[in-house]
Amino acid sequence: xxxxxxxxxxxxxxxxxxxxxxxxxxxxxxxxxxxxxxxxxxxxxxxxxxxxxxxxxxxxxxxxxxxxxxxxxxxxxxxxxxxxxxxxxxxxxxxxxxxxxxxxxxxxxxxxxxxxxxxxxxxxxxxxxxxxxxxxxxxxxxxxxxxxxxxxxxxxxxxxxxxxxxxxxxxxxxxxxxxxxxxxxxxxxxxxxxxxxxxxxxxxxxxxxxxxxxxxxxxxxxxxxxxxxxxxxxxxxxxxxxxxxxxxxxxxxxxxxxxxxxxxxxxxxxxxxxxxxxxxxxxxxxxxxxxxxxxxxxxxxxxxxxxxxxxxxxxxxxxxxxxxxxxxxxxxxxxxxxxxxxxxxxxxxxxxxxxxxxxxxxxxxxxxxxxxxxxxxxxxxxxxxxxxxxxxxxxxxxxxxxxxxxxxxxxxxxxxx
Length: 417
Known about the structure:
It catalyses: ATP + protein L-histidine = ADP + protein N-phospho-L-histidine. By secondary structure, the chain is of the alpha+beta class. It has 2 domains: 7-179, 2-Layer Sandwich (Beta-Lactamase); 215-408, Heat Shock Protein 90. It is built from 14 helices and 11 strands. The strands form 3 sheets. It has a 5-stranded mixed beta sheet with strand order 6-8-9-11-10. The chain has a 4-stranded antiparallel beta sheet with strand order 1-4-3-2. A two-stranded antiparallel ribbon has the order 5-7. Helix 9 (216-232) packs antiparallel against helix 10 and helix 10 (236-254) packs antiparallel against helix 11. The longest helix is centred in the middle third of the chain and has 51 residues, at 151-201.
């Protein structure tokens, strides 16, 4: 029987202890609450001299726990109180504590004698053999002092205990459900807030600004490099650079009315960007772009990857005199694709990562534009796919940075695409 919760998850143990003590005082029966293994959860209430004496011995105590566990499970199976004879020969009652079909434990009561003809009607708690206490006269003496009552009175006490247990569980479950509902309302409000923020940031002017997010510093470097190549070399590399740059501009401009692309298109755009940077930086930049063919047709928001690659160039490659390496991969998974952008730069501090992703990082010039691009990409991913998605950034100082983006294979219809 699988246990998903513990008794103290659904019932206040201090309150249970007070009710258990009052029940024992009112009925004369001993009581204790145990978990599904028979281990006590509350303190003993009105335990008999016999049971206290028996439980002083560890072996006998283990038998008591086993008897309680067995009685509790039997009550859980029947869904009502179980009345049985414990291994010590006294009558006990087990009242199950059940939550959504899961057995958490039981309230045990009893430790009494009833007439022999009524005893014969009851099952044994663990086996048909009672524990032999003939070598323990003090135990046998305390057994004779056990309180005597009738089976009818035991049943009435069991019904009362069952009513109390059900009330406590139902009361606490209502409280738990109210808390869950409150938490879900908070999550819904946060999601609505996130959607409204993204919708505001994705107005036409903001979107056009995002699409034109190839900053002036980058354009200046491109034009400078084209000029030097034209002067010092033949036309082949110049032509290659111009083609790559033209494809990037065409990719940016043609998405003005369609903000969704395939991963193949997005990666081709990144490849063009990197090839231009390679011509500018030469041997200081090494890179690789690998995309699983099975992932090429998966749709993703436009300009999802490029801001992170640009960030890697700015922070991992350019500041290093020896340059650096950038690796971009897109692997197919059961539910979509897994994108990674990895560099071997100096890394990013946790505080800076947090500020970049929540849009509070303040920087100047080119670095500021890149930070905005990363924040926008992260917000759009959460907007289109839900708050469980978005960007994960793992980085260690002097160890490089790894960006992880999960693109689910789900429809983007109704998300503004």
